[in-house]
Design goal:
With 264 residues, the chain is mostly beta strands. Helix content is 14%, strand content 41%. The chain is built from 4 helices and 15 strands. The strands form 3 sheets. The protein has a 7-stranded mixed beta sheet. A hairpin with a 4-residue loop joins strand 9 (131-140) and strand 10. The longest helix has 17 residues, at 165-181. It is globular.
Amino acid sequence: MRIVSLNAWCGTLFEPLAAWLPTCGADVLCVQEVTRSPGLDGWVAYDDGEHAQSQRADLFGDIRGLLPDHQASFVAHDAGPVDRDGIIHRQDFGLALFIADRLPVVGQATAPITGAFTDHRDTWPASHRPRLAQTVRVIDRDAHRGVLIAHLHGVRDAEGKGDTAARRAQAKALRDLIVWAQEPDDLIVVVGDFNLLPDSETFDVLAEIGLTDLVGTADTRTSHYPKQVRHANYLLVSDTAAVAAFQVLDHPEVSDHRALILDI
């Protein structure tokens, strides 16, 4: 089974992303920074006062069209305004899972890990936005076991990626969701854009339930990210012996984040 995680940067690099996704071999694809605007497609303009960019109006729909043999699930952290030719539209922002049809899905769970859903009426805030974690439990028929996969997009703080009270609470909420969703003998995989440094106490909290990080201090950003701190994305497993291969993808560049690819 192959699990792929990517912060897709709202589809800002959509052409290379669209070329790569159908070839990446993901049985379970975890995507962060996913947009959804029902009834709207193509490009829109986003602006939160700190970041301004063109992004996809409905990246969830775009990816669903690229992966017709996958089940799709989207959950929204928050929502706000985007511009198309001077007309303001409402856009949902959140997480998505795409699961190969051949895998039985036997459980799904979502829980807030920071704040609660907010509809930003006039402008998007640049940081301290609400966050969710999304999980799916599938049966790996080849290995005759359950696999619980959880992913998240950790809270952004304009002050940096150091530990804070909000991130401490986020780690505990994530841990509690995993404990609630797992079944005995499941292999657990936790992945995503944590927005943290490698020495974060979050990893101590997740170690309490037997999770080990595979990324460490590896660079998880691409050439499209100009800042010096290159840490953001992590992948943890409950059983390192189950890992057949693990890669932090450096090419092609389909976002300002590198994809994480795990074969189990």
